[in-house]
Specification:
two-stranded antiparallel sheet; 12 helices; Porin; globular; disordered N terminus; 16-stranded antiparallel beta barrel; alpha+beta
């Protein structure tokens, strides 16, 4: 029970816990509201002299009576407005009293709660089924100065305090739910990405075009039945009209109208893996995946920081239904997990602070939030330094007509390592070299013309070209806040054929790339450059023997199968909040010279990206 209030006089028992002081403050506000109606009761003689006063009024001139009546009407109107205002304040007080933690009745068994140690021993799974006590509000100020403050200010303070209490309760529940992760059930986790891209791009043969498109829409399902049995499935949205960054080629679309695609969700990638390379050196794998060849993985947003696609991935990405073995050696020894570490948060520096400041200028004031200590993170064990895979697949019938055997394969061998220069991480905050990582691997494929781009672009000539093997070498490394990528992909045999104009062709496709990225507000515990905060990236990629060939379409020579000779990307981006990235990019593409079948022109482009990761 709160302290009793008798016509503005506070019972002297107002003392004790913060909840009782809160009730006392609420009662003082109510007494202040009622006090405005006791003006008349303070002067009872006025009512006794009312008849005499009324008689005097009858004796004054009529114009004085009219003025007196007008003043009385004004007073009555002001009194009505005061009543209405006090009625609203009373309603707000009633709402606060009905929801205030100090007014909530507690069960009789409250004093029989178990000891704090027993309560802390409850499993985490019971958190959501147990009521959460919000943090107590600060004790209200019952001083004489506080009692003299205007009623509306005191009510506003109570409302702000209660809003802060509710905000803290919601944050406790949100953090509790975050601990469960993106799991749908015990075996399945859901993630994905949605990208929107705005672009203005030049062309080698046409006018500059502006476009607003859906860059990527994916749903990723990760399956883990045990440490030894895992899988994944990725659904991808495709509008059927080709890449976001066209180079003059459009894939064949299953419609009768040129350039019109069909919206669809397709199975982009999936796999089954049997084995645990952290416990045993060999594992089996089967699925529809991008084969190892350079940095091509089919998920450009995870491998490069640019919005556009490097020529290495655009030309040689090879997606097949394949199966085989993976290996990693030596198997890491069994050991206890490393101690958890509180990782400093990387803060956005440009977009997010500017938007926050603009909102404050427009009058938005965020409610106070209860600060929470960051959760310590346990980093995974380092994987085995040597790794690789051998996968086999059945190639296209267009390359070897009527084939009946699974005779194409892909092999990869890599080495990875990392270090911190023998210095503790908390002493590397100003280092530009440590910690460092290195990942180098070489890949071999029996038929590079099985890639998406080469198979689609050179489809009329594949039976002449046949099987052309290729190799790739790539290096990924990081030093402090810097990350570097270098890659070379190439066929190792000449592809000979006669094009649509009867011209003998001899080509050996080759591409390469080099890129550098810098992470702002970097700290030594960052695992991946550009995955949080602000970053900037500069990337260059080139090609050789990719000027294209000619075919006849409706009797008109048409150039197909070409990519730019050089491509440059300059990209800057920021993760404005968890899961949301914005980026801008400038690109330049240089075509092959006229002497080898190109146009010799340069096409410039500007791109803007908003990406949601969940």
């Amino acid at each position: 029970m709160g302290p009793r209030m008798i016509w503005g006089k506070r019972d002297e028992r107002v003392a004790g816990s913060g909840r009782r002081r809160h009730a006392a403050e609420t009662s003082i506000i109510k007494s202040t509201t009622r006090g405005r109606y006791r003006v008349c009761s303070a002067y009872p003689f006025v009512f006794r002299a009312a008849p005499a006063l009324f008689s005097l009024v009858l004796l004054v001139p009529s114009h004085a009576a009219a003025a007196e009546n007008e003043d009385i009407a004004v007073l009555r109107r002001m009194l009505g407005e005061l009543k209405a205002e006090n009625r609203k304040l009373s309603e707000r007080l009633s709402a606060l009293e009905g929801t205030s933690p100090a007014r909530r009745s507690k069960p009789a068994a409250e004093h029989q709660r178990p000891a704090p140690a027993v309560t802390a021993a409850k499993p985490a799974s019971t958190v959501l089924s147990t009521p959460v006590d919000p943090p107590a509000l600060p004790a209200p100020d019952l001083s004489e100065a506080a009692a003299k403050r205007p009623l509306n200010e005191r009510v506003r303070d109570l409302e702000i305090g209660w809003a802060a209490n509710e905000n803290a309760t919601r944050q406790i529940l949100r953090d509790t739910l975050n601990k469960t992760g993106p799991k749908i059930n015990n075996f399945l986790s859901l993630s994905g990405v949605i990208e929107g891209v705005a672009s203005r791009t030049g062309s080698f043969t046409g006018p500059t075009q502006e476009n607003l498109s859906l860059g990527t829409a994916e749903l990723d399902f990760d399956i883990k039945l045990s440490d030894w049995l895992t899988g994944a499935m990725v659904l991808h949205f495709d509008n059927g009209t080709g890449a976001i960054f066209p180079t003059g080629n459009q894939p064949v679309v299953p419609t009768n109208i040129a350039g019109v695609g069909v919206d669809r969700f397709t199975l982009d990638r999936t796999h089954i893996a049997v084995g645990d390379l952290m416990q045993f050196p060999i594992a089996a794998r089967f699925g529809v995946e991008v084969l190892h060849f350079g940095t091509s993985t089919g998920v450009a947003r995870l491998d490069t920081l640019s919005i556009g696609t490097p020529l290495t991935t655009e030309v040689f990405e090879n997606r097949q239904t394949a199966g085989g073995l993976e290996f990693a050696w030596p198997t890491p020894p069994r050991q206890p997990p490393p101690a958890p570490v509180v990782v400093p948060r990387v803060s956005p520096l440009v977009v997010a602070p500017a938007v926050s400041q603009l909102m404050r200028w427009l009058g938005y004031t965020p409610l106070p939030e209860r600060p929470f200590r960051p959760t310590p993170v346990t980093f995974p064990f380092d994987p085995a330094p040597f790794y690789g895979s051998v996968m086999t697949y059945r190639g296209s019938d267009s390359i070897i007509p009527g084939r009946t055997k699974i005779d194409d394969y892909n092999a990869s061998l890599g080495f990875r390592t990392r270090g911190h220069c023998g210095v503790p991480y908390d002493q590397l905050k100003d280092s530009l070299v440590c910690p460092w990582t290195l990942d180098f691997h070489v890949d071999y494929d029996t038929s590079v013309f099985e890639s998406r781009f080469l198979r689609t672009s050179y489809l009329p000539f594949l039976n002449q070209i046949g099987r052309i093997p290729g190799v790739a070498a790539s290096l990924k490394t990081s030093f402090g806040p810097f990350a570097f990528v270098g890659e070379v992909n190439a066929a190792i045999q000449d592809a000979r054929f006669i094009d649509g104009l009867g011209i003998a062709r001899n080509m050996m496709p080759m591409t390469w790339q080099a890129s550098i990225a810098y992470q702002f507000d970097w700290n030594p515990w960052i695992q991946e450059i550009g995955a949080q905060g602000d970053f900037i990236s500069l990337g260059y990629s080139g090609s050789k023997d990719m000027a294209g060939v000619s075919i006849l379409q409706n009797g008109v020579p048409t150039r197909i199968g070409f990519v730019p000779q050089h491509r440059l990307f300059l990209t800057g981006g920021e993760w404005v909040m968890d899961g949301l990235k914005v980026a801008v990019e400038y690109s330049a593409n240089w075509d092959y010279p006229v002497s080898v079948g190109g146009t010799g022109k340069v096409a410039h482009g500007a791109f803007g990206l908003i990406q949601l990761n969940f």
